[in-house]
Amino acid sequence: MVQMDGTDIRSIPESIKHLVNLQFFNIRACKYLTQLPSGITQLHNLRRLGLFKTPLSFIPKGIGILQNVNDLSGFVVANNESSSKLEELNSLKQIKMLSICNLERAQSGAIVLRNLHCLSDLKLYFSENSSEPNEEEKLAVEQLFDELVPPRSLEELKIIGFYGSRFPNWMSFSSFEKYVTFLTRLELADVTSITVLPPLGQLPELKLLTIRNASELKKIGPEFLGVGVNSSTKIAFPKLELLNIHDMPVLEEWSFGAQVELNASPMLKLLPCLRELNISDCPLLQQLPKDLNHSAMKSLCIEKANSLKSVDDLPTKTEVLQLVDNQNLEKIYCLPALKRLLVINCEALFCVENLDSLQELILFDYNKESLPQWLLILLQQCGLQNHSNEDFLLHLQCSEKALRQCVEGGSHWELIRHIPRVIAYEDDPFGAGTGYLRYSKQPYVYDTNL
């Protein structure tokens, strides 16, 4: 094994070819290394070649000779006479993990991937564009992607930087069963020209889905579910457990559009295995999809969704809610199964109610000189002054002035002393000299430095 990841190496000697028994060669993230010796293609026992994030200008011609390679990260597409062409990958019949960089440079991708029957993990990267791609460039990458049909063995797929206006034909409703039946993890990132998502809800084995920076996507609609009209049992995202939606600057509307069908057909199931939904940096998103309450979602995190006004009517199984930097959020209500609530920097929040199962409340608010009114009301509504749950925890990080109101003799002490457990800090709990309050009702513990 040769392990040189992250080093300052600037060149590799041609004599590397004499290491005929070398099986693992890792030179990822070597920022000064721009070329590989041609002798690397003579390492016939090589099983892993790690090149990702090393700024290579090309891969020497002959990479297809290394037929024992099962892990190749960072194959660089180039068009000079000395470089390996994309077609050479067709010879790597044992490959299981493959990542390709600068994919837009490829001239042809026909049958390159389709016959790699051991391939389970594929990552496709396009170069960052310094200018907006024109229609001809978009059409070229769309055609290239249509040719890059993956094998049915594929389980994980990542597409980064694709700037075509549509996804490839093999990601259409009619092609899923033929090409990507066993896909379990999918990430689409920096897909900057896409305006419509593919029908990913019909991927039968998909468990993790991340969509990041689809900067032209304004609406997520029923096409995302892809529920076939000819299906006897309609299920959208039958095995999806984790859904991440990030960095959508123009996303305004998210609706599954399934409400009518749900009322008409009890056979339609939506996200029956969903555990966690994470949404961040969607500044124009005004509300969550109404049909989300038919899912099995247990945890929801929303961050920097500044047009969102309320969070309510979540699935009956939702137990964890995290809200961070949602500047216009006003209301949180009607969440009877919620056990854990975290609120950070939601300045406009004034109504939090009907959280009957709450066991832990975490509030970070450094700007106010007093505890927010909604918190005081919520604690009273939940009956925390005579709370039967001896494990209930109130965790505060707040200003010094707000914290002083919580200690014995402060204006909020009469409320605080009836809460089973309280942990409160001034600003950063790890800062030197930070004020704190630690309180337990039973057994009685009272500790503060204020």
UniProtKB/TrEMBL annotation:
Disease resistance R13L4/SHOC-2-like LRR domain span? 3-248
- UniProt keyword list: Repeat
User: Keyword Phosphoprotein on this protein?
Assistant: no
What InterPro entries does this protein's entry cite?
Answer: LRR_dom_sf, LRR_R13L4/SHOC2-like
**Name the UniProt record assigns to this protein:** Disease resistance R13L4/SHOC-2-like LRR domain-containing protein
Q: Which organism is it from?
A: Dendrobium nobile (Orchid)
Q: What is the lineage of its organism?
A: Eukaryota, Viridiplantae, Streptophyta, Embryophyta, Tracheophyta
